[in-house]
Design a protein that fits this description.
Family: Belongs to the DXR family.
Structural class: alpha/beta
Distance between the termini: 54 Å
Keywords: Isoprene biosynthesis, Magnesium, Manganese, Metal-binding, NADP, Oxidoreductase
InterPro entries: DXP_reductoisomerase (IPR003821), DXP_reductoisomerase_C (IPR013644), DXP_reductoisomerase_N (IPR013512), DXPR_C (IPR026877), DXPR_C_sf (IPR036169), NAD(P)-bd_dom_sf (IPR036291)
CATH class of the largest domain: Alpha Beta
Strand order of the largest sheet: 4-3-2-1-5-6-7
Shape: globular
Number of strands: 11
Radius of gyration: 20 Å
Low-confidence stretches: none
Largest sheet: 7 strands, parallel
Number of domains: 3
Cofactor: Mg(2+); Mn(2+)
Bound molecules: nicotinamide-adenine-dinucleotide, magnesium ion
Pfam families: DXP_redisom_C, DXP_reductoisom, DXPR_C
Order of helices and strands: EHEHEHEHEHEHHEHEHHHHEEEHHHHHH
Number of helices: 18
Helix content: 40-55%
Length: 388
């Protein structure tokens, strides 16, 4: 039996992970399950999987969580410190699936235990960058990418010398607005943005996919996971989401990983690595799919990838500022406070007015993130319904 904790158990990645565990219950002992405010679902999962502890990040929800777990013998805890404590419990693998920089401190706590981390929470790595990768090295932890593109790249790099990589290409579906004109994008609504054509995901990453900030964050994520040099990292739009990413070697060979667009595939690869386990998905039917197409990204309609590349080039604290500004802008867009095209414009505005020095430790990253959020909120509040 292997011990597992899932940070963000009630989300889309959490549900996909638990679905795989449900199919092989004898292989796993669930230690910690965490969530934000959805304590009814959290308690239900904790009971089903016999978790040792269930944690709500929102201390105000602890009372309800305790009631929902009454008589189960499962520990209940609440608040940010409890989240970090639960993430510090010894396990074989932690799935880091909280959305946003809120997942940074617990993910770092798991890294400090020196185990294996299946990283879905890309915002944490984007924000912390070298602070996280150096902690991974210092504590002898293993970071396995859950993000489908990075999981694909990880698989394509296996057994090869990274020094022989000519380029790494991240594929992007292009999101629901792939073929929309700039004029149409100005009027895009939250309901339209969260309706992704290929993937079923949480609201924040769905909006990121629509703006292409998801691919921008993934570019920075790849830069830290696969340090081959930013100039070797490319992005290509691939509407079918069948090729999850590719690695080209100096001899002209390109290796790609293909699979159904279901996160249980990369999660299964992380749970079993370096072995393979069964997933309940239908085999890939390329004849039925018929065609795979590719096109260059359009940074005029979708400036996010340009902003992310610039932030990665600047390094230090700048990716954390980009991420924080984007998180605030996405929340404002979902709340109907700003228009769709204002998201990238807003991130660019925040980047142009806040360039703190490089963080040296987790506390520095958290401080940069907090300050960037404050500035991002102030900018939005000073021009609430500003047109694009
Ligand atoms: P989601 O919104 O469905 O779930 C997020 C989880 O985090 C929930 O359990 C929620 O309770 C918890 N959470 C939210 N705010 C929190 C806070 N402030 N403190 C503590 N916990 C909090 O999100 P998701 O789609 O599962 O995505 C999770 C992460 O995985 C994101 O970083 C996303 O970019 C990444 N990811 C998701 C997918 C996907 O297909 N969904 C694919 C690749 C990467
Ligand atoms: Mg991805």
């Amino acid at each position: 039996m292997r011990k597992i904790s899932i940070l963000g158990a009630t989300g889309s990645i959490g549900a996909s992970t638990l679905d795989l565990i449900r199919r092989a219950p004898l292989d796993w002992k669930v230690v910690a399950l965490t969530a934000n405010g959805n304590v009814t679902e959290l308690a239900k999962l904790a009971r089903e999987f016999g978790a040792e502890i269930a944690v709500t990040a929102d201390a105000a929800c602890l009372h309800d969580l305790r009631e929902a777990l009454a008589g189960s013998g499962i520990e209940a805890a609440g608040g940010p410190a409890a989240l970090v404590e639960a993430a510090s419990r010894q396990v074989d693998i932690t799935i880091a699936a909280i959305v946003g920089c809120a997942g940074l401190a617990p993910t770092m706590a798991a890294i400090e235990q020196g185990g294996t981390i299946g990283l879905a929470n890309k915002e944490a790595l984007v924000s912390a960058g070298d602070v996280m990768t150096s902690a991974v090295a210092r504590h002898g932890a293993t970071l396995l990418p859950v993000d489908s593109e990075h999981n694909a790249i990880f698989q394509c790099l296996a057994g090869n010398d990274p020094a022989h990589v000519r380029s790494i290409t991240l594929t992007a579906s292009g999101g629901p607005f792939r073929d929309w004109s700039l004029e149409q994008l100005v009027g895009a609504t939250p309901a339209q943005a969260v309706r992704h054509p290929n993937w079923d995901m949480g609201a924040k990453i769905s909006v990121d996919s629509a703006t292409m900030f998801n691919k921008g964050l993934e570019l920075i994520e790849a830069h830290h996971l696969f340090p081959v040099g930013l100039d070797k990292l490319r992005i290509i739009v691939h509407p079918q989401s069948v090729v999850h990413s590719m690695v080209e070697y100096r001899d002209g060979s390109t290796l790609a990983q293909l699979g159904p667009s279901d996160m249980r595939v990369p999660i299964a690869s992380v749970l079993a690595w370096p072995q393979r386990i069964e997933t309940p998905l239908a085999p890939l039917d390329l004849a039925a799919i018929g065609e795979l197409s590719f096109r260059a990204p359009d940074e005029t309609r979708f400036p996010a990838t340009r902003l992310a590349r610039q932030a990665a080039e600047a390094g230090g604290a700048i990716p954390a500022v980009l991420n924080a500004a984007n998180e605030i802008a996405v929340a404002a867009f979902l709340a109907g406070q700003i228009g769709f095209t204002r998201i990238a414009a807003h991130v660019e505005d925040v980047l142009s007015c806040y360039a703190p020095p490089a963080p040296a430790c987790l506390a520095d990253v958290i401080a940069v993130d907090a300050e960037a959020r404050d500035r991002a909120r102030d900018l939005i509040n000073s021009a609430p319904m500003e047109p694009a």
